[in-house]
Structure formats: structure tokens, C-alpha cells
Amino acid sequence: MPLVNVMVNARAYTIACDDGEEEHLKMLATHVDAKVKELLGSVGQVSDQRLLLMAALLIADDNHDLAERLEAQTRQTGELAQSEADAGERFDQSEAAACEVLELAAKKLEDVAARLAHA
After folding, report:
1. What's the domain range around 74?
2. Per residue in 80-103, pLDDT tens?
């Protein structure tokens, strides 16, 4: 299991990760460090523990918002798919009704043609 050195708030941390996850872990640490710097600009210097907790809460809030947006998009996609299925069903019903009308008209024309042939 590889160890990765990351920097957050100008402090070095050594974190273990799975093989192949080193760059991803570094990217995540960079994201956390950016949130910490953002917080430092608005709340000033507080303890590292409090700062990291606040950064974690901001990141969790962002994640929660994204999950809600994804859920809404998934729901909307399902509704659109259902609407499309309903439209397809209505089209099939309309097509069947049109076929019945055409068959009836054809039958009437055949009846008229038969009467004219016997006349």
C-alpha cells in the first residue's frame, strides 16, 4: 500500500492509499487545501482541527447539493422517458384508429364498386 505526502494548510500529511490512487489522492488534497484557503480568507486563523472540520462541512455541502441535482436530473429523465413512452402509445393508438377508418372506407368503396358493377 503506497504512502502519499500531501500538503493542506501548509502542513504535510502522509496518507496511505491503494495502488494507482496516488494522483487522485493528491488531487483531493489540493481540493481540500483550496477550501481551507477559502475559509482562511473569510474566518481568519482558527485551529487546524476547526478549519479542517469547516472545510469538510463545505465539501460535504457541495457534495450534497450535487447529489440532489443529480437526483432531480434522474427524476426528470425518467419523467421524459415516460412521457415519450406515453406519446408512443398514443401514436400507436392513433395509427390503429386511422387503419380502422381506412379499412372501413375501403370496404365502403368496394361495396359501391360492387353495386356499380351489378347496375
Report:
1. 3-118
2. 888 888 888 888 888 888 888 888
Distance separating alpha carbons of residues 91 and 114, to the nearest angstrom:
34
Residue spans of beta strands (DSSP E) within 1-119: 3-8, 11-16
Tell which residue, 4, 7, 63, has the closest CA to residue 34.
7
**Model pLDDT for residues 25-65, shown as the tens digit of each residue:** 999 999 999 999 999 888 877 888 999 999 999 999 999 99
Residue pointed to by grid coordinates 443529480 = 70
Query: Whole-angstrom Cα distance, residue 36 to residue 50?
Result: 10
Output the pTM of the full model.
0.61
Residue 93 identity: Q
- As for how many domains the chain has, the answer is 1
